[in-house]
Write a structure and sequence with these properties.
heterodimer, A: mainly alpha, 2 helices, B: 2 domains, 18 helices
Chain lengths: 56, 470
Amino acid sequence: MDTKPQQQTTTLQHQQATALPQQTTTLQLVLAWGFVGIPLVFGVVQTLINSMKLFQ
Amino acid sequence: MGALSFLDRDHTVAKPGYSRWMVPPAALCVHLCIGQAYAYSVFNLPMTKLIGISQSAPGDWKLTELGWIFSIAIFFLGVSSAVFGRWVEEGGPRKAMFTAACCWAGGFFISAIGVHLHTLWLIYLGYGVLGGIALGIGYISPVSTLIKWFPDRPGMATGMAIMGFGGGAFIASPLSVWLMSKFNTATHIGVMETFIVLGVVYFFFMIVGSIIVRVPAPGWKPAGYVAPTESKGLITRNDVFVYDALKTPQFWLIWWVLCLNVTAGIGVLGQASAMSQEMFPGHITPVAAAGFVGLMSLFNMGGRFCWATISDYIGRRNTYFVFMLLGFALYCTVPYTGLTGNVAGFVLCFLVIISMYGGGFSTVPAYLRDMFGTRYVGAIHGLLLTAWSMAGIFGPVLVNYIREYNVSHGVPKAQAYNTTMYIMAGLLVIGFICNCFVRPVNARFHMKANDNRGTEPGSAKAVAPAAVQA
């Protein structure tokens, strides 16, 4: 009874997954990681600078 | 309805060639934003001077009233992750991230109105309730997706995302202070404008994450990865339905393991500054204590990634054994460092302890995946986060009240925390025992091939059949 919608879903996903390959480029990876990495590194450096007060 | 169909799970299935390394940044987009919650305290003092500007005036809010904002948010984090866990799992990560973005930004906007009208209940509703719901949904939204993309390294994958939650405060704290300084005038405190800007920035960041994120196509597996054909040790090949997991002793054992581990860490995290100054009077100044707190935050974040990654190699249960045993030894050592005036030893003990506190959060999704399978791991994780809410109450209460009791009974302040340390060590012993009892889930709880639950279109089951799960 529940197999029909599941089959439809799986078929839709299968079609999406097999048609139109979409290679992730290195640029996309660099942009994605930079988007989150740059603010994070900025925050970590700021915190590290403040933390150095412990050793002064 | 049709306009929002791009949010559906079906529309987030990755096409061939999509790199799984795009998913951790997507998860970090959400976790770095909601991690702002840890930095909310930077608004407390300015919000006590909204009327008086230079100092609190009659009618200004009190710190005790403002303290409720964070407590309400954490309470709703636990509630929403438990209530919406199944919806998040079956609706897919994009829909969950989008919802979290709307709630998170909406929470800031409502709070901005609350500040403008000087109406505290609007901030309780905005940041507390709506923001808390965003915290819960956002926190669990990428977990199962990451586990499905990284069946070979689930600990490392979830560790990266949950590390972002710890790191969000590093960005939010200086950003909020800078924004307030920009909007401050002689007659106005710039909290309202800061809330609006943060709401816009966080909404943008989280939406980018929801656009990037993809779920793996049915049958996908990493190149060179061979999924185990049968259950091995604690790692199951079967799935347990989200509400059936509640009926297993394993869920509650892990619940207590997490609760006790978090209780042991969260209490000292909140009191680290005062504790270090009182245990080492004259040696640790308020400025140095602030540096110590910053260093603890870094270890909290780093521990989330490192311990979760280590768990991929030594196993989840063994990782928690390390937390409990090493934590026990370190908590027992802390009073000795105070007695001998060993500041370096004290700092080292707490840095390791706090790294394991963070590691407890990031290792638990992979632990649940090992026990209950991949299909409902996000939803089960959501239910488990109620342990965090519980620990958030117990931990600080234990530290504060035992210290108060000791001081009022004549114990010198430098030694007032010793009893607390031994109690924390005792809690970890209980956690160790709970962890010992964790065994593979009984086969009667496993979902059968003809199980109807979660089979609606776009459901988690349809997307990730058991045959492709690691």
